[in-house]
């Protein structure tokens, strides 16, 4: 039955490194009602070679590091190729030599197909296999996965990869992608506090892009990662809409947001995140004072069997540039998070300015070890409001 209980603190919460490195201030699991509090998350990388250093010293998680092939290593399609997709028709990836037989390494052929179909719809069919160098999408790329189509990584030995990269591109559309990070085929060191940079979809400095019904499974790091451009840390991703994302069995997060404006996740389901910290369904955490968290909307998310359902951590955000944060979560449903369904914290202003709000309305937390927690939060920072919370033990 739903219940209200203030100051509910699990023993595991005290032992978790994200909290033991700082003084615990408040923990709460609440039933129906309103709680005004304030934020906790996971992400950090100042450059393309970043690793999970913060977790090694007891902190939060890091963002995506670069693969051996950067987004700039493949020639960008010319502006004459960038025709509008609405009138350009559909091209089958097989016409570029993609075999999709479940055995052949199709990465080079599929990259050629992506580069050669800008302004058109590229139809991907069959069981595509690629190596861990990944694929670069272009401005005006439009990928559509046929029923039953998938891209799965071949055996590899790296903790850092991106299956699909949307780096510094505009007007990208992806439909029905099914991406398998093949963590069972990865011989990289399985460190519970390190090595979380293997991404299904990496979005960095991209704008005006939509991803519809993507599935990302078994990624070494995150199913989807959203952050600033790696070429300009002051250029966040902007106007990114992701609908019906399904992430299952990823090691670090179902999804991560480190920097972005006008970012929407609509009706995602993030499940069974486990392997390296923080193991959240969604992790919202800026890497530094360059980051932007503006108009972040998470609509009707479902989190299942993750360490944290949703985690918001602003520890790295304060700095010389004043920041305003707006994060709105509605109708969060968490089932059996084995640590905390929703955790917020990590903000110490130290004379800097971070304003705004972080809200969660109408959450339902079922069978989670803890419903809601707030730790190490400077109350001069963004207001945190949790309304109409239901917690079922």
UniProtKB/TrEMBL annotation:
Keywords assigned: Lyase
Record-linked InterPro entries: Pectin_lyas_fold (IPR012334), Pectin_lyase_fold/virulence (IPR011050), TAT_signal (IPR006311)
GO molecular function, one term: lyase activity
Name used for this protein in its record: Pectate lyase superfamily protein
């Amino acid at each position: 039955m739903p219940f209200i209980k203030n100051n509910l603190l699990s023993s595991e919460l005290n032992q978790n490194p994200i909290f033991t490195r700082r003084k615990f201030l408040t923990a709460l699991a609440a039933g129906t009602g309103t709680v005004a509090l304030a934020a906790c998350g996971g992400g950090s990388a100042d450059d393309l070679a970043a690793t999970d250093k913060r977790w090694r010293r007891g902190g939060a998680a890091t963002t995506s590091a670069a693969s051996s092939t950067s987004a700039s290593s493949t020639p960008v399609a010319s502006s004459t190729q960038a025709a509008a997709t609405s009138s350009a028709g559909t091209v089958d990836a097989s016409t570029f030599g993609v075999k999709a037989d479940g055995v052949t390494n199709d990465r080079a052929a599929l990259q050629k197909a992506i580069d050669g179909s800008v302004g058109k719809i590229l139809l991907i069919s069959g069981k595509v296999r690629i190596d861990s160098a990944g694929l670069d999408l272009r401005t005006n790329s439009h990928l559509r996965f046929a029923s039953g189509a998938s891209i799965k990584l071949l055996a590899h030995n790296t903790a850092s990869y991106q299956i699909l990269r949307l780096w510094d591109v505009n007007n990208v559309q992806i439909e029905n992608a099914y991406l398998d990070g093949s963590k069972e085929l990865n011989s990289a060191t399985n460190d519970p506090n390190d090595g979380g940079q293997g991404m299904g979809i990496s979005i960095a400095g991209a704008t005006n892009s939509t991803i519809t019904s993507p599935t990302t499974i078994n990624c070494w790091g995150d199913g989807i990662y959203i952050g600033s451009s790696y070429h300009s840390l002051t250029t966040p991703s902007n106007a990114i809409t992701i609908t019906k994302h399904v992430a299952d069995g990823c090691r670090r997060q179902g999804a991560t947001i480190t920097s972005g404006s006008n970012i929407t996740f609509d009706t995602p389901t993030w499940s069974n995140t486990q392997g390296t910290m923080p193991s959240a369904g969604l992790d919202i955490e800026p890497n530094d004072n360059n980051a932007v968290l503006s108009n972040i909307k998470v609509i009707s998310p479902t989190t299942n069997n993750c360490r944290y359902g949703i985690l918001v951590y602003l520890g790295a955000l304060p700095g010389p540039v004043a920041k305003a944060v707006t994060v709105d979560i509605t109708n969060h449903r968490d089932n059996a998070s084995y640590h905390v369904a929703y955790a917020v914290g990590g903000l110490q202003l130290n004379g800097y300015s971070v304003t705004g709000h972080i809200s969660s309305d109408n959450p339902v937390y079922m069978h989670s070890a803890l419903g809601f927690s707030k730790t190490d939060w400077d109350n001069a920072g963004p207001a945190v409001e949790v309304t109409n919370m239901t917690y079922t033990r």
